[in-house]
Structures are given as C-alpha cells and as structure tokens.
Amino acid sequence: MKFGTKAIHAGVEPDPSTGAIMTPIYQTSTYVQSAPGEHKGYEYSRTHNPTRRALENALAELENGKHGFAFSSGMGAIDTVVKLLNPGDEVISTNDLYGGTFRIFTKVFEKYGIKFTFVNMSDVREVEAAITPRTKLIWAETPTNPTLKIVDIPAMAELAKANTILLGVDNTFATPYLQTPLDLGADLVMHSVTKYLGGHSDVVMGALIVKDDQLAEDIAFLQNSCGAVPGPQDSFLVLRGLKTLHLRMQRHSENGAAIAHYLKDNPAVAYVNWPGFTEHPNHAIAAKQMRDFGGMLSFGLKNDSIEAANTVLSNTHYFSLAESLGGVESLIGHPASMTHASIPREERLKSGVTDSLIRLSVGVEDVNDLIEDLEQAIAKVPMAVNA
Ligand SMILES: *Cc1c(COP(=O)(O)O)cnc(C)c1O
C-alpha cells in the first residue's frame, strides 16, 4: 500500500457494532465482563481503549513498524524510553537536542544514575568515540531544531548494531511521510504527535513505534504501569489529522522550498538553514534518507541583533508568533529569546543560534501571501551599519 492510501486507511476498521466508518470516540474508563476475566479484549482504559488502539495501529503502519503506543505528550513518550534503561546505563545524544528532551535527560534522569553524553551527531566519528561498554541508547533527532542539521540514520544504525545499542529517532520534524527511520535501521521511533501528525494545533500527544516484539512488550508494560496515556477524544482528533498527513506534508514541503529560496535572495537575509539547498552541509544525506525537505527552516539577518529579529517577529500577520510547529497555520519564533533563552549566549552561538535567528514553521496557506508577509516584515528592519 502506498503512503497516501495508508494515511487514510491504516489502523481503521468499520466499527464492529454499528459499521460506523469512522472509529467512534469510546469515552469509557471500563468495560463490562460477562464473567470474571471474560471480556472482549478491553478491561480498563489506561491499559487499552479502542479509539486509542485504532490510532496506535495507524501510527505503527505509517512508520512501517509493528507496534504503536500513544502517550499523553511527546515528553511522556520520551520518559518511557528512558525508563527502559537501568541506573549505570549511558545514553549518547545530540548537542542540539529539543530543549524538553535535554531537560528530562539532565534534570530528571541523571539523578537516577543514568549518564548522558551530548555530541555533534552530524559527525559519526564523534558518536563512535563516545561509546563505552555501558552505552545502551543512542537518541537522535533529525532534522534538528532550530538549525536543521541532519543525522545520518543508516550510519547511526550500523554503529548501534555493531555495539548492541538501541537506536531511537525523534521523527517529529520529518514525519513518516518524509522519512521512516525503522526502514533505515532504527529500533524505535518517537513523535511529538502534537506537531505534524495531529497537524491542527489542537492536541498534545506523543507516540512510540517499534518492530521488535520484546521491546514492544517492555514499552506496553511501562505505558500501563506509569499511565501517561491520551484520552479517546484526542485519539480521535489525531486519527482525523492523519488522513491528510500526505497532503499537508506535500504542501508544507512545497511552501518551505519556495520560502527558503525567496529568503536566500532577500538582501537583508544573511543565511538560510534548509536541508534542500545543495550547499547545506548534510544535503546529500538528507536527499538520500528523506522524501522531501519539509516545512521547517530558519534564517539569520545581516542586521544580527535581537532588535532586528523582534522587528520581523512583531510585524508578520500570517506567521503567528508562538512556540510549537507542524500545524496548518504558519508560525514564527525566535529561539534566542524563546526556546533557547535559558542557554548562555556563548553556548547558544556555538550551536548556531545567533541573536537574529528566526525559525519558521511554514504552514499550508497560499505561499504568495506568506512571501508577501515576510517581505513587508523584513523590509521594516533597519539595515546593519556594516551590511
Ligand atoms: C515538541 C517536541 C517534543 C516534545 O513533545 P510534546 O508533545 O510537546 O511533549 C519532542 N521533540 C521534538 C522534536 C519536539 O518538537
């Protein structure tokens, strides 16, 4: 089955009791048993719920996995992954990790005796050098936020396999439409479903998808034991969102490409981070492992100041100033004062988050309106003195 067909049909069966084509919202906490232990596969909704089950099956199919698990947020999903480990285990991850992931790793799990090492994951040799006999998990994110670096998933998978380490990939930015890490050798895929999979900025949810039966059993145990599960209403909304995932991602990618090229030609713009440019340092890997380049990009201004960025941020009309990404509407953000505000300036500059860096989540509006919006907002920025 091709992706577009899967997006519409995966996981969904006509409801057995009525034939309803859309999976109903099973708003129930428990299920009546005909005799003790005799039930129809559902006992209690923390463990199983038919609406959530339909969504979990859909997510598993879209990622070419075997088992899907939905969580009450992306962080709930990551929390579960780390709980697969034991005190003394080590994790290698990327030094431009999503801020919330960095926080749960260092501020929550370090005190339980798990060690985290952060390297530049675009360089396979740095990852290799960080491996010790205690390394149990490599946690990758690609493309990364907000500088759109690319990690070579097959190279990571090779390294992980050779050292019997689990490879997890946060596939939030790419979605299974653009990239399927399990096909590239990863053991585990994670999503902030809040973003593109939900797609309409109306749900907070997370997911894990795996192929291996034992790993699935361990995750199911933790999902039920720790209890960070989403409700049936949210599961329904995401099932609905998934049906247009391929259409939305096509348009996000088209609009993203048009805006990346427009910005590159704008004389007030210093540089554009977008993996579709042949001069992007990891373009060849992106072109190999991704189907297209998506709707996320970031750019810096020649007038590289927080004030200049603020001028753009407060003058766009269709690009709304907000955290998050992946919805149908375009969003604009300023990492230096929003997502990366807690990182010291020197550190932040080293990872490419300059004062004027602006991140766009390009939506699916008419791209001409989006370009006009950026054009008039950037035109209000005073040129740098030495530009
Ligand atoms: C948003 C996000 C998360 C966290 O997900 P929540 O649904 O907000 O808990 C993790 N990773 C990435 C890349 C994200 O963008």
Describe what you observe in this structure.
The chain is built from 14 helices and 12 strands. With 387 residues, it is α/β, with parallel strands linked by helices. It folds into 2 domains: 3-242, Aspartate Aminotransferase, domain 2 (3-Layer(aba) Sandwich); 245-378, Aspartate Aminotransferase, domain 1 (Alpha-Beta Complex), CATH 3.90.1150. A 7-stranded mixed beta sheet has the order 1-7-6-5-4-2-3, with helices on both faces. Strands 8-9-12-11-10 form a 5-stranded mixed beta sheet. Helix 2 (50-62) packs parallel to helix 9. The protein starts with a helix and ends in an 8-residue tail after the last helix. Residues 73-75, 98, 100-101, 141, 145, 170, 172-173, 192, 194-195, 204, 206 line the site of pyridoxal-5'-phosphate.
Topology:
Layout: H1 3-9, H2 50-62, E1 67-71, H3 74-82, E2 90-94, H4 99-109, E3 115-119, H5 124-130, E4 135-141, H6 153-162, E5 166-170, H7 175-178, E6 188-192, E7 206-210, H8 213-226, H9 232-242, H10 245-264, E8 269-273, H11 283-289, E9 296-301, H12 306-313, E10 320-321, E11 331-333, H13 345-350, E12 358-361, H14 367-379
Parallel strand pairs: 2-3, 2-4, 4-5, 5-6, 10-11
Antiparallel strand pairs: 1-7, 6-7, 8-9, 9-12, 11-12
Pyridoxal-5'-phosphate (PLP) is lined by residues 73-75, 98, 100-101, 141, 145, 170, 172-173, 192, 194-195, 204, 206.
Radius of gyration: 21 Å
* Computed structural class: alpha/beta
Topology pattern, helix = H, strand = E: HHEHEHEHEHEHEEHHHEHEHEEHEH
The main β sheet shows up as:
7 strands, mixed
